Amino acid sequence: MKPGIFCLSLCLCVLGVKAANQHPRPGHQDAKNRANLLLITIDTLRADHLGCYGHKSIRTPVLDNLAREGVRFERAFSPVPLTLPAHCSVMTGTYPSYHGIRDNSGFVLPPEQTTLAETLKDSGYQTAAFIGAFVLDSKFGIGQGFDYYFDNFDLSQYENVSPGYIQRTGDIVVQRALRWVEGRQGRSEPFFVWVHLYDPHDPYTAPEPYRSRRPESPYDAEIEFTDANVGKLVDWLRQNRLYDNTLIVIVGDHGESLGEHGEEKHGFFIYNATLHVPFIVKFPGGANSGRVVREQVSLVDMAPTVLQILGRGGPQSLKAQGTGLLALVLGKAPDYRAEIYAECYYPRLQFGWSELRGLITDRYKYLLAPKPELYDLNEDFDERRNLASERSGLANQLRESLNALRRRYAASTSAGKAKLDAETAEKLRSLGYVSYRLGDTGNEENPNLRDPKDEIGSYNEIVALFEKSSRGDYRAAIPRYEQIVKAQPALKIVWYKLAQAYFHTGNYAAALEGYKKAIELGGDAALATYDLALTYLKLERVDDAILGFRRTVELDPTHFRARANLGLLLKNQGKYSEAIEQLEAAIAQAPGALIALNNLGIAYSMAGRNREAESTLRRAVEIAPNDGLVHANLATALMRMGRTEEAQKEMETARKLDPRIHRRTPP
Length: 667
Description:
By secondary structure, the chain is α/β, with parallel strands linked by helices. The protein folds into 2 domains: 31-333, Alkaline Phosphatase, subunit A, CATH 3.40.720; 422-661, Serine Threonine Protein Phosphatase 5, Tetratricopeptide repeat (Alpha Horseshoe), CATH 1.25.40.10. Helices cover 44% and strands 10% of the residues. It contains 26 helices and 13 strands. Strands 1, 2, 3, 4, 5, 6, 7, 8 and 9 form a 9-stranded mixed sheet that branches. The protein has a 4-stranded antiparallel sheet with strand order 10-11-12-13, covered by helices on one side. Strand 11 (356-360) and strand 12 form a beta hairpin. The chain is globular, with a radius of gyration of 28 Å. It starts with 16 loop residues before the first helix and ends in a 10-residue tail after the last helix.
């Protein structure tokens, strides 16, 4: 899709070199004299796959030119190789241990966290975000502070799709961003626009001509496509005379391993392949162009640096743990000795293996794991030679520094565990997105946990099996699932996935035992208990199913599907009062849930609560006007009320919509 052509007239003064270098105080500039901010985060972008970072054959002219006209940070590192946690760090200037988001699933950024968007909005900026992937949907809390947030992902369109693949291409994201900026015509306040481009994330399916240009590297083809979309934004700024007065920041949220260290993609290890990211800042007025910062920096430094440049305050404005880098850019920080923290809790949260934590200094990188690692980044940036044994003294010293850093950056209270709204949580469960969480993150390292380095082969195979199951090929996955749980009986998530595979192939007795084992081992018990209840239903063990749904509601009161099914079964047993209680609770959580509305209307009718029955079933008809069964249920309720003519009319509609209702007669 091609973006439209717009024209925007804004009278904005250029923030030149002098203004940028003088650190203007918050409130110092008049609103219409402030620089705009365009933040572009490019998902899954390794630094060394851009021309300006040394890639010889890739075509990234737009990003390379921004690096020439701006400041390029040579050694910028993500604190975590996962999209949602990394972006929360970008937006808050804090590490995952503080903001609490440790994985792409099961976490929501709490409202007490302060974001860059909130800070700039409070300072008079108009804020908008345009998102390329569902993992950054505003439902996960990342939209705090934005006046407009373009996510709008319709999950109902997806079946058996990994939520990481729910995305839109960069040209669509850019088109919507430009459309929004066009709509600002006549407004005097500056803007903060965040554009998130997801294309370098797998699957690598760049459009033509990029795909044909790089047949040997589909990943690079996606990067070239992304570069072109960044170009559309830059061109528009130039054409509308906003380029000079806009601070442009480009960052990758994390990289992509591409097979290094045995990791096919990202999210499992914290080697440089997935942590080393581009960080480019094009200053307003062209200040500091061509500078290269060679010291190590973190993505948590981005937000406080932006606030320094815009004159909106420093780290204190965000309660940031990152450092404003303006002095470093200007060559006024000769004693800069930052220690960069990184982590990945995905192996522990999802598989029960050890988490990984890392410390990056001006020369060394130390990885805390059951088998620790130490690398000299000046000599071995690709981390091929582990020096932990031969330089044990240095390794122990860095271990102590890492532990001190962990304590410094930890949150004083638990964070990130807020609930999603019920309808979103339910749809995510159906997509398998609410992970079978194995527990909390723990407080100290556990040397008895398995080292992820030793499990990379198992991990790659398990992920491949998950993808096979998501495509519906359950029978092919079952034998290997069985072998894996035999070798590692404590792998709860695999027990759960095995039980799912049994269920979908009709082996309900085996599914029952699998779910019981998953529940016994712990983790997200509500998820497994709900599926256990469904399995009891398949086995026609209704009383056991009722117990299962009751237990699910106890574990997760927001599980509206469990309440809806419990209400249905209780209604069928004639327990109308209790059925109504559960169905009303389900509707309170998910007002548009048709199954709950339908059965609630029937329960009201059977209990003699006729007015409520009619109003509820008419709501169901409004939601699903082409559903014959809904019309038939309304007809039945009307007939019980003695409104025969209306009932017959509804039943005629029902039969036209659904021939299976042809013989049904309202009682």
